[in-house]
């Protein structure tokens, strides 16, 4: 069995998934306000993931969000970031833009590890690793 692992890096401030917005007018409808940011992020992922096949089986997704340190709020680099944006919304964003690029469908993600820390170099580090599936205990 294979146990491959790929690590990618998204430069810049980590982005959180925003809620769908309601466009008011003659017809009320929902729209994605982050559509252009999503397309740009997907292009960065595709460029880095070139030459790899999308993951299909059970996978573990490790996400490290390196948040910018504000000038007005000094904290040591590497300390935990426990303010907005929420970690789950940051994870949703990465899983949303990675769907169809890093993996066939996000249902194959079985394990997620995520952390948010302060850094002078804001970025998101994505590591996806194929998990070895154990079907029968007797065969081990």
Keyword list:
alpha+beta, 60s Ribosomal Protein L30, Chain: A, 4-stranded mixed β-sheet, disordered C terminus, 19% helix, two-stranded antiparallel ribbon, globular, 2 helices
Shape: globular
Strand order of the largest sheet: 1-6-4-5
Evaluate the radius of gyration: 18 Å
Q: Give a short account of the largest sheet.
A: 4 strands, mixed
Q: Level of helix content?
A: 10-25%
Strand content: 25-35%
Order of helices and strands: EEEHEHEE
Q: What is the averaged pLDDT score?
A: 86
Write the layout of secondary structure elements.
Blueprint: E1 5-11, E2 21-23, E3 29-31, H1 35-48, E4 59-68, H2 87-98, E5 109-119, E6 123-130
Parallel strand pairs: 4-5
Antiparallel strand pairs: 1-6, 2-3, 4-6
Could you please describe the fold and organization of this structure?
The protein is α+β, with helices and mostly antiparallel strands. The protein has one domain (5-139): 60s Ribosomal Protein L30, Chain: A. The chain is 19% helix and 30% strand. It has 2 helices and 6 strands; from the N terminus they run E-E-E-H-E-H-E-E. It is globular, with a radius of gyration of 18 Å. Residues 136-140 have low confidence and may be disordered.
């Amino acid at each position: 069995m294979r146990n491959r692992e790929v690590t990618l890096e998204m430069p810049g401030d980590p982005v959180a998934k925003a809620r769908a917005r309601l466009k008011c007018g003659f017809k009320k409808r929902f729209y994605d306000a982050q559509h252009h940011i999503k397309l740009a992020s997907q292009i960065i992922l595709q460029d880095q993931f070139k030459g790899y096949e999308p993951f299909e089986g059970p996978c573990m997704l490790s996400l490290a969000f390196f948040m910018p340190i504000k000038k007005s709020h000094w904290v040591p680099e590497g300390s935990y970031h426990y303010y907005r944006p929420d970690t789950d919304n940051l994870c949703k964003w990465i899983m949303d833009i990675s769907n169809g690029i890093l993996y066939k469908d996000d249902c194959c993600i079985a394990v997620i590890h995520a952390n948010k820390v302060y850094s002078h170099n804001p970025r998101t580090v994505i590591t996806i690793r194929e998990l070895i599936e154990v079907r029968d205990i007797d065969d081990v």
